[in-house]
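Side project, low priority. Logging it here so it doesn't get lost.
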Amino acid sequence: MILITGATGLIGRHLIKALMTTSYQVRCLITPSDAKHLPWATDAPNAPEVVIGTLLDEEILFQALVGVHVIIHLESGQWWANTRQLERIELVGTRNLIAAARANRIGRIIIISHIGATPSSAYTVLRIKGQQEAIIRDSGLAYTIIRSGLVFAPDDAFINHIAMAMSLNPLFMFMAGQGEVVIHPIFIDDLIKAILVALERIETVDETFTIGGAEYITYEDLLLTIMRLTGQSRMLIKMPPYVLRWFNTLTRPFVRRTLITKQWYDLIATNRTAPLGNLYHHFEFQPQRIEDTLLTYLPKKRLFFSAIRYLFKKRPRGI
């Protein structure tokens, strides 16, 4: 039995879909608000068992872990949560999960972290992810930590949000810094495949893997690629990141959600790459290329209407 936290998030949704085609038994810990809109059919073959609760409810956690052998811990608020909410989800929630796991003698915990995560990072998301990694390593449980590059997918909150932000302004697009930061995006299917390989291989236990996609790309080149694929030619205006963070703070009261959050800027604040051959070396398959993959879905999206719906959609509720 596998317990998955954060099953309704980006990685969780795709992982559940993949696991439903296997023989694994899956159980999901779902918050009460997320349980109202599950992204899979509950009557589908091999649909996961659902336990309603949060990482802060110790009694529910203990019950959810009965009979479980592996935890895949994906619960995160990196795209929307403030610092306090991130600490509750990533740190307090992880400590509670480990305490319940030790009581139930769980075999292993697998988490997805970020390239560049370290407890000493100057950037909130990377610092908290680094602290979470330290908690996992010191837990006494067998673990696998996968440090991933930025994940992109047809339903992601990264590349899709850039494209939607462009659709709202027909003239220009603000670019953080000089656009020189190098990132290492990985397609969601490749990350899911790596998780499934890690589940099967005993040699991945008590190891930390750093992986990315098939190529590096600068932030500026990524913006130009999105413009080309969506047909949205915009003037790029270079702005200091602190100005964009300040602008984000000013606009937040006027919309329920913002397309690009303060945490979003943390993930493009510094070069974050892994050796290009790591995915093949550790998991023995080749990743998909960025532009070839984006070409299959990005030009088909109705970006302006998607952006408007998102801006006035109800904000996520922290646990």
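Brief comment: The chain has two domains: 2-149+187-211, 159-182+215-272+287-311.
Revisit when time allows.
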